[in-house]
Automatic annotation (TrEMBL):
Catalytic activity: GTP + H2O = GDP + phosphate + H(+)
Assigned GO CC terms: cytosol; endoplasmic reticulum; signal recognition particle, endoplasmic reticulum targeting
Primary location group: cytoplasm
This protein's name: Signal recognition particle 54 kDa protein
Native species: Anisodus acutangulus
Domain (SRP54-type proteins GTP-binding): residue spans on this chain: 269-282
InterPro entries xref list: AAA+_ATPase, P-loop_NTPase, Signal_recog_part_SRP54_M_sf, Signal_recog_particl_SRP54_hlx, Signal_recog_particle_SRP54_M, SRP/SRP_N, SRP54, SRP54_euk
High-level lineage: Eukaryota, Viridiplantae, Streptophyta, Embryophyta, Tracheophyta
Tree of life domain: Eukaryota
One Gene Ontology MF term: GTP binding
C-alpha cells in the first residue's frame, strides 16, 4: 500500500527537522513542505493539504519549540491531529440496529467494487448476528444479478433480483418489501454503476433512493482513482444523501490519499476498507489507529484490543511490562509466538506492533509463517531454562546449537536461522524500552 510510503516520508521529514539544532520558521517550513509533497504524491487533494499546513502553522508555537520542548513530538502530534480531522467528519454514520429493519443503499461507479462490497458488508453483519439480505437493483450491467446471486449463495445470504424486469426502482421496492416481511433487519440494495459519472446514473440513483427511503447510503470508491476522488465523491453526494464511504482495493498499489479527499467531499466517515477480493478481506475503519499506522507509530489501540482478546487477563500486565523494559529473551519470543498463533490473522497483528515489519510474516503467506513459528517453537522446546531466560546471544555456543538441533530433530542451519530471527526481533523490541503504553485510542508514545 502506497500509504505506507506516505507515512515513511512524513516520519522522515519530522526526523530531519528534529535533527536540526535550532527550530526556526525556516526549518518548520522545510518540514511542512516535505509533508505537503508527500501528501500530494499520495493523491490527497491540494486544497486539503494547503489547509492542513496552514492549520499546523497556526497551532505550532515556535516559541514553545525554541524553549526546548520535544519538537518532534509537538509537530507530530499536530500532523496527527490534522490528519485525523480530515478523516473524521465529526459525526458518526448511521449504524443499523439488530431486530429493526434498516435499508442500506450502495452507490458508486462501475468497477469500484460495489457488488463485492455489498456482500462483504452483509457477510460481516451476518457473522455479528444480523439477518441481512441483498437486493440487486442493477439492471444496467449484464451479469450483475448473477454476480450478486453467486456471492450471496456462497455466503448463505438471501437475495432478490430479476432477469426480466428492467425498472431498477420496481426491483428495489419489491426486494425491500419482500425482506421486510421476512423480518430481515439489514436490507442491502445494490444499484447500477456507470463507467463514468453521467446524468442517467444520478437520476436513477435518486429515484431508487426516493422509493426505498434508505436509512444509509454508502458511497463505494476505488482507492486507486487518485486526485479524481474528491470530485467523484462530491458528485455522488450532490445527487443522493451519502452518509458513509467504503474505500476498496486498499491492498493494491493505490495511493490511498483519495480516501481522505472522499471524506472531505462527502463530510461522511469511511466506515470500512476493502483489502482483497475475498469475502472476509474487509476491515472496520477507525481513524486514530489508521493515522497512527500511517505515521509509522504502530497501532497501539488495535494491538491492545488483540492482546485483550487472546492474552489471558493475568498475563497482560506482565507482557506490557516486558515490552516497556525492552528486555527480550527467547522465552518471551516463545510466549509471543504462542500468543500470535492464538491471535489469528498473523500479518494483521504484526503490522500493529510498533516497529515490527512484515518480514517474519509476509501477507499472503500466513500458512508458511505459521509452520515456521511452530518449527521455531519445537527448537525452543529443546532449550534449557538458562538459554531461554538469557538475553545474551553469545551464550549460544556451537555445541549448544548442535545439541538443540539434535534434540529437536532439526538442522543446525535452522537453529542458526532462528537465532538470527531472535536477534532481529530483540533489536526491534529494545527500541520499545521506556515506551509508555498509551490508553486505548491515544496516539503512541514517541
Ligand atoms: P462493481 O462494478 O462496482 O459492482 O464492482 P465489482 O464488485 O464487480 O468489483 C470489480 C472488481 O474489483 C472485481 O474483480 C472484484 O473482485 C474486485 N474487488 C472489489 N473489491 C476489492 C478489494 O478490496 N481488493 C481487490 N484486490 N479487489 C477488489
Amino acid at each position: 500500500m502506497v500509504l505506507a510510503q506516505l507515512g515513511g516520508s512524513i516520519s522522515r521529514a519530522l526526523q530531519q527537522m528534529s535533527n536540526a539544532t535550532i527550530i526556526d520558521e525556516k526549518v518548520l517550513n522545510e518540514c511542512l513542505n516535505e509533508i505537503t509533497r508527500a501528501l500530494l504524491q499520495a493523491d490527497v487533494q491540494f486544497k486539503l493539504v494547503r489547509d492542513m499546513t496552514t492549520n499546523i502553522k497556526k497551532i505550532v508555537n515556535l516559541d514553545d519549540l525554541a524553549a526546548g520542548h520535544n519538537k518532534r513530538r509537538i509537530i507530530q502530534q499536530a500532523v496527527f491531529n490534522e490528519l485525523c480531522k480530515i478523516l473524521d467528519p465529526g459525526k458518526p454514520s448511521f449504524t443499523p440496529k439488530k431486530g429493526k429493519p434498516s435499508v442500506v443503499m450502495f452507490v458508486g461507479l462501475q468497477g469500484s467494487g460495489k457488488t463485492t462490497t455489498c456482500t462483504k458488508y452483509a457477510y460481516y453483519h451476518q457473522k455479528k448476528g444480523w439477518k441481512p439480505a441483498l437486493v440487486c437493483a442493477d439492471t444496467f450491467r449484464a451479469g450483475a444479478f448473477d454476480q450478486l446471486k453467486q456471492n450471496a449463495t456462497k455466503a448463505k445470504i438471501p437475495f432478490y433480483g430479476s432477469y426480466t424486469e428492467s425498472d431498477p426502482v420496481k426491483i428495489a421496492v419489491d426486494g425491500v418489501e419482500t425482506f421486510k416481511k421476512e423480518n430481515c433487519d439489514l436490507i442491502i440494495v445494490d444499484t447500477s454503476g456507470r463507467h463514468k459519472q453521467e446524468a442517467a446514473l444520478f437520476e436513477e440513483m435518486r429515484q431508487v433512493a426516493e422509493a426505498t427511503k434508505p436509512d444509509l447510503v454508502i458511497f463505494v470508491m476505488d482507492s486507486s482513482i487518485g486526485q479524481a476522488a474528491f470530485d467523484q465523491a462530491q458528485a455522488f453526494k450532490q445527487s443522493v444523501a451519502v452518509g458513509a464511504v467504503i474505500v476498496t482495493k486498499m491492498d493494491g498499489h493505490a495511493k490511498g490519499g483519495g480516501a481522505l479527499s472522499a471524506v472531505a467531499a462527502t463530510k461522511s466517515p469511511v466506515i470500512f476498507i476493502g483489502t482483497g477480493e475475498h469475502m472476509d478481506e474487509f476491515e472496520v475503519f477507525d481513524v486514530k489507529p489508521f493515522v497512527s499506522r500511517l505515521l509509522g507509530m504502530g497501532d497501539w489501540s488495535g494491538f491492545m484490543d488483540k492482546i485483550q482478546e487472546v492474552v489471558p487477563m493475568d498475563q497482560q500486565p506482565e507482557l506490557l511490562q516486558k515490552l516497556s523494559e525492552g528486555h527480550f529473551t527467547l522465552r518471551i519470543m516463545y510466549e509471543q509466538f504462542q500468543n500470535i498463533l492464538k491471535m489469528g490473522p498473523i500479518g494483521q497483528v504484526f503490522s500493529m506492533l510498533p516497529g515490527f515489519s512484515a518480514e517474519l510474516m509476509p501477507k499472503g503467506r500466513e500458512k508458511e509463517s505459521q509452520s515456521k513459528i511452530k518449527r521455531y517453537m519445537t527448537m525452543m522446546d529443546s532449550m534449557t531454562n538458562e538459554e531461554l531466560d538469557s538475553s545474551n546471544p553469545k551464550l549460544m555456543t556451537d555445541s549448544r546449537i548442535m545439541r538443540i538441533a539434535r534434540g529437536s530433530g532439526r538442522q543446525v542451519q535452522e537453529v542458526m536461522e532462528m537465532m538470527e530471527e531472535y536477534k532481529r526481533l530483540a533489536k526491534i523490541w529494545s527500541k520499545m524500552k521506556g515506551l509508555k503504553i498509551p490508553k486505548k485510542g491515544q496516539m503512541s508514545a514517541l
